Amino acid sequence: MTIQSRFTGFCQEVKDGIVVGWAINIVAPQEHVILFVYIDDQKIAEIKCDQNREDIQKQINFLRGDIGFQFIIPDKFRDEKKHELCFRFSDNNVLLFLDPQKQGGRLPFISFSLSENNKVNQYVSYIDGWKNGAINGWILKKDLYTGQYTGNCEVKVFVNGTELKTISANRYRPDVASASGGDPYCGFSVVVPTTLRRRYRATFRLLILPEEIDVEGSPYEATLIDDVLEQQLIVMNNHVDSLYKEITQLRKEIQKLVALPEYVIEEYDVWARKYFPFLEPKTKSLQQQIRKKNIPFQNPLVTIICPVYDPELQYFSEAVESVFRQTYQNWELLLIDDGGKSTEIKKELKSLAKEDPRIKVITLKENKGISAATNAGIKKATGEWITFFDHDDLLVPQALEIMLYSAYLQKAKIVYSDEDKLENSGIYIQPHFKPDFNYRYLLGINYICHFLMVSADLVKKVGQLRSKYDGAQDHDFLLRLTEITPHDTIYHLPEILYHWRMTRNSTAETIDHKHYAIDAGVACVSDHLKRMKKPAIVSSLDGSTAYQIEWKSQTSPHVAIIIPFKDQAEITQECVDRLLKNTNYINYTILLVDNGSCEEKTLRFLEEYKKHDRIEILPIHEEFNFARLNNLAANHIKAEFYLFLNNDVFVDDPNWLTKLVNEAALFDDVGIVGSKLLYPNGRVQHAGVIVSLTHVADHLGKGEKKDDEGYIKRSILSQELTAVTAAMMLVKASVFHEVNGFNEIHLKIAFNDVDLCLRVKEAGYKVVFCADCVAVHHESLSRGSDDQPKHKARFEAEIKYMNDTWKDTKMYQNDPAYSPYFLPEPPFFHNLVDPDK
Q1: 99 and 214 in one domain?
Q2: How distant, in Å, are the alpha carbons of 126, 599, 741 from that of 592?
Q3: The pLDDT of residue 233 is above 80
Q4: Where does the record place the Glycosyltransferase 2-like domain (predicted)?
Q5: 823-to-688, 701, 702, 819 alpha-carbon distances in Å
Q6: Quick one: CA torsion of 563, 569, 575, 581, rounded to 10 degrees?
């Protein structure tokens, strides 16, 4: 190495083809050194010196410890031939090797000869498979010096032998980190171009660079059309009503393939960068509405409460800078030093307090925890509105302004927005597009989180945060707020206004699940329900900060299980037998609505089963009209609840009816409760219904595995939805008659259940999806498909009626349980609406 070089360092060890060393830039010590690797005078790779070498840092008294490197000689040079290895800096000077034969000796290169037996397995990797137009997987690289596993590997992708792209395996994968103890930033998602997705079959090869080692599972062969359609195909009926149905369905699927969405959630960063510029005109539009409606808006002071406990200085500075950059400037920022140890943060806090009078620093003598620190801020708050901000997160510039305008326009006391996460690389990931206020969902998970703004009067009324719930203190705070304020004053602003930074600390919290936070969450939900006099047992769902609630009602209101059918004795008998065998609930009656059965087998079945003391037969010899059959049955029998059930739905859980009844019986404002329905192959057929102008109604969760969590655990948590299917629907009898039951005139067959749900919601009641009640549904086994020619005219008329009737209602235009930024079509929670539109 020459004297003039800006770089210094050494290759310290070469063993079994693994080179370990370090290098620094003397002139620019903050920069990582890039080394160029040469074998036999040919450059084969570039490596970055960014691995932890605190031992060297201490020896040379350097400002950073991430100055190390390791390099594994590629397999193609392990051929038992003699080769020469050399490392060069960017100024072409060489990085010297320590001479193992001579103390103090230095070498500009080394010679080596390796065999295949010297191969080193430094990677663990896996291809998860094909989903939603992308190949997903993960890669971890073993640091052979420390033994730790790191992410952020480079991968070269080939399709049918042609190079497609090079990507970084740096996506957030907490599941991999939890299982391996390694870096969570190790995932990859190869989005396949539209043109390639039209191929019938393709072979993908994924090579880890620079060694060009195959990812485990590579080459990966995908039948692209088959795989793209898998979720749709598994939800098709096991029988085919006619050739027409097949052609119709295939035509729809082909159209979906041709018209692939422009934005998908895996590529959220691309969407986000197009979306954020639109927040400025949206904010101005809200301001104009304020003026047009003559709403008194006198620039209220907003208090931003930010507990501070030893964040990284850079991230903390960026967090504060995001407050300075707010378009709304009438704020005060309360920075609560929670007994931190960092001298540079304390220095920064003093500097900030001097820099701007709007910033006030509150110093606690010792670390009190998040609740106590937040409470110290609440006590000093002077604003009309109070917001909560973490010390290393970021606010979107329009956050305060758009939140305030929304609060005044909606007459809200509590406003919450959507949020996303920000990787250290600057990439936006994992957007949380939330539903409108959803109390039942909130019981199961704190989905509100950031960004939250609350009226100061309400904060004073609800009281301080409680340290005994630290780890879930914000969940407890929200639940207590719901106890003292009308739920219609809680407004969801469906805009991304908050970036949650994915620091190493926050990652560790995700991986470990913070057992104390889980315990605190169970306690805060349990205590809330006790205060609300709702008896229940709360438990963690799969060891996470999501909660399952087992209601413990002391009453057993009478339930009439209404089952319309015609013939199909075997199916109907199986349905009834399972009800009788697998229902622990005591107070129920089965009403079999016979719509003109004539088969001898069915008549024998009816003759036998009418003798059962729980079963009643109601013969109705009319043309099939699902809505009318159920209405006549409901008018015929006296009960406190009606359980509308298809004769091809089979139950196995003995507590199924107890779960449904308790969801409704304990809450006066719940009118309908739906179930999770599976296909016979175990995949989900129904996890609630989403309504829209473009598709009328469609089932959530189609094609998912039974235990798939879904988007933000939406598939496994009970929640309020806009509609559920009447294939298995519990309805309060009083509510059913209040809205005049099913529409038997305009919706004889299809959409009558969705229409009923919409009218029940319009009347002020809630529709709840009970994720814990699971049954198997052989969809349309009894009736057949709406795709048959003889049904087409009727089906199209029912679609027209739904759109004509509900098109002007807010809940039909934008389903409150579904973000307007997701396309309202399968796969749900995946395809994003173009921000331009």
Answers
A1: no
A2: 52, 16, 18
A3: no
A4: 303-412, 561-681
A5: 16, 15, 15, 9
A6: 120
**CATH code of the domain covering residue 389:** 3.90.550.10
369 token code pair: 């925890």
Domain end call among 118, 149, 167? 118
- State mean pLDDT over 416-434: 93
For the chain, give the longest Cα–Cα distance: 104
Residue 417, pLDDT > 70, answer yes
Q: Is the dihedral of CA 316, 317, 318, 324 positive or negative?
A: positive
Give residue 14's pLDDT. 86
Tens of pLDDT, residues 628-667 = 999 999 999 999 999 999 999 999 999 999 999 999 999 9
Taking alpha carbons only, the member of 662, 638, 625, 645 closest to residue 733 is 638
Query: Are 197 and 222 spatial neighbours (Cβ–Cβ below 8 Å)?
Result: no
Tokens for 107, please give them. Answer: 């070498």
Residue with token string 């310290």? 12
| Structure-token match 């719509």, residue found | 595
Distance CA 733, CA 640 (A): 5
Closest CA to 655 of 774, 536, 561: 774
* 701 and 566 belong to one structural domain: yes
Own/partner contacts of 116-121, CB < 8 Å, gap of 24 or more, are 116/75, 116/78, 118/16, 118/17, 118/78, 119/17, 119/75, 119/78, 120/16, 120/17, 120/18, 120/72, 120/144
C-alpha distances (whole Å) from 413 to each of 293, 403, 459 are 19, 11, 10
Reported in sequence order, the residue ranges of 458-586 that DSSP labels E, i.e. its strands, are 490-501, 536-540, 547-551, 559-565
Q: Under a CB-based contact definition with an 8 Å cutoff, are residues 309 and 391 in contact?
A: yes
What CATH number does the domain containing 15 carry?
A: 2.60.40
CA angle at residue 700 from 694 to 701, to 5 degrees? Answer: 140
How far apart are the C-alpha atoms of 444 and 423, rounded to whole Å?
27
- Average pLDDT over all residues of the chain: 89
In 525-640, the DSSP E strands lie at 536-540, 547-551, 559-565, 588-594, 615-619
Q: How far is CA 246 from CA 614, 780, 782, in A?
A: 41, 15, 18
Q: pLDDT value at position 78? A: 87
Please tell me whether residue 527 adopts helix, strand or coil conformation.
helix
Residues in CB range of 475: below 8 A, 6 or more apart: 446, 469, 521, 524, 525
Write the single-letter amino acid at 14.
Answer: V
Is 35 in a helix, a strand, or coil?
A: strand
Q: Is residue 210 located within the same domain as residue 69?
A: no
Determine the Cα–Cα distance for residues 253 and 251; give it in Å rounded to an integer: 5
Domain containing residue 345: 297-510
In a domain, 652, yes or no: yes
